[in-house]
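Page 37, continued from 36.
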């Protein structure tokens, strides 16, 4: 008596309680197929997990690339400022002051939306890049203006109070990290008040009261200071390769 049944679609013939070799091969192939299918299922699951992981990581990688690109761009611009200052000063500035100026001027210019070379031009005209500069009138008398951006103590205190920057004494104005932020903020106040870059720069030098009085009484403005700032500005930009 011969019995037949199907396992994995392969006929198995049992005769005298023995299975033929061809049926063993069919069973083996079936097992292999099952193992392969299970393995493929695991591969699909693992790949799906990896895809989800990559989908999470990719935005982070893109953000990192943006940060790195931004940082490199900042460094490039600061290196440019340092190189320009070296050329502009004929190598007379120390490396320390060049890098301090580059860092502070770049950072604060970006805060207020200035071209860094415009701020450098104001600093050049005011103090010739000397952090310890003390202002003098044309007659040689001490003007009371101090530091890189030649701020007077009273003016500096008002701006510092508005910005929440501590100003313990007038000697703090010899510190570039204090002087430059206060100077740029004061320049911004004047430009905003007069709604004019030219008038704002003149007010920074001559005082807002003088400019307001001249405008009210229709007196001609002295623009010598403004022209000096523009001359320095265009020289600095030219050295940076910008037109």
């Amino acid at each position: 008596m011969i019995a037949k049944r199907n396992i994995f679609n392969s006929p198995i013939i049992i005769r005298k309680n023995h299975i033929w070799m061809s049926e063993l091969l069919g069973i083996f192939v079936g097992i292999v197929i099952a193992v392969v299918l299970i393995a493929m299922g695991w591969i699909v699951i693992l790949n799906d997990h990896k895809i989800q992981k990559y989908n999470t990581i990719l935005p982070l990688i893109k953000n990192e690339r943006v940060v790195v690109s931004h940082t490199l761009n900042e460094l490039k611009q600061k290196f440019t400022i340092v190189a320009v200052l070296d050329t502009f000063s004929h190598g007379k500035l120390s490396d320390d002051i060049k890098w301090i100026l580059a860092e502070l001027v770049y950072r604060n210019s970006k805060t207020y939306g200035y071209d860094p070379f415009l701020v450098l031009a104001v600093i050049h005209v005011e103090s010739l890049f000397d952090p310890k500069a003390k202002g003098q009138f044309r007659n040689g008398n001490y003007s009371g203006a101090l530091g890189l951006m030649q701020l007077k103590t009273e003016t500096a205190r008002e701006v510092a109070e508005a910005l929440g920057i501590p100003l313990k004494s007038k000697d703090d104005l010899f510190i570039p990290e204090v002087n430059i932020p206060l100077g740029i903020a004061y320049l911004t106040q004047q430009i905003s008040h007069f709604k004019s870059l030219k008038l704002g720069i003149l007010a920074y030098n001559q005082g807002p009261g003088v400019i307001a009085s001249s405008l009210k009484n229709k007196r001609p403005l002295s623009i010598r200071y403004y022209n000096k700032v523009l001359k320095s500005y265009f020289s600095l930009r030219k050295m940076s390769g910008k037109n």
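The longest strand covers residues 10-15. Flag for discussion at group meeting. Confidence is low (pLDDT under 50) at residues 1-14.
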